[in-house]
Specification:
DNA binding, coiled coil, about 65% helix, XRE family transcriptional regulator, about 0% strand, 434 Repressor (Amino-terminal Domain), mainly alpha, Lambda_DNA-bd_dom_sf
Length: about 130
């Protein structure tokens, strides 16, 4: 079964524009990390995603939970009030959730590393200044 991630990105971008949402707000509403929202919305990384990620984004955008999955697989999206078809919780979807959490953790660690480097640089400047006064 082919997947059209470009169509998913296009659908998200159109809906975000209609609703006047920012990426941060979409991430917050969907409980999907900002990095993942960015990747999906701008079609930066093409890889298997958890069905729950697409469900969360769909719901946050006011669509049926399986709207983006339908777009991904070139099917007509269900109406908002259509019943939700239970998707099997496969090993792949579990792995995808772990990968998404790891990406979120990595993003946070990178930010901390950058903050720590800045603090170290500032301390070095203070130490240099103090030595210069002696």
């Amino acid at each position: 079964m082919s997947e059209d991630w470009a169509a998913v990105a296009k659908a998200i971008n159109q809906r975000v524009n209609e609703l006047g949402l920012q990426q941060k707000e979409l991430a917050k509403r969907s409980h999907v990390s900002l990095a993942i929202v960015r990747e999906v919305q701008h079609h930066l990384v093409e890889r298997r995603r958890s069905p729950r990620t697409l469900e969360s984004l769909s719901t946050a955008l006011g669509w049926h939970p399986q709207h983006l999955d339908a777009v991904l697989h070139d099917r007509t999206p269900p109406a908002v009030d259509d019943p939700v078809v239970d998707l099997a919780d496969t090993l792949w979807s579990r792995i995808d959730r772990v990968e998404e959490r790891l990406e979120d953790i990595t993003e946070r660690l990178d930010a901390l590393k950058s903050d720590m480097a800045s603090v170290v640089d500032q301390l070095a400047e203070v130490a240099k200044h103090v030595r210069g006064r002696r």
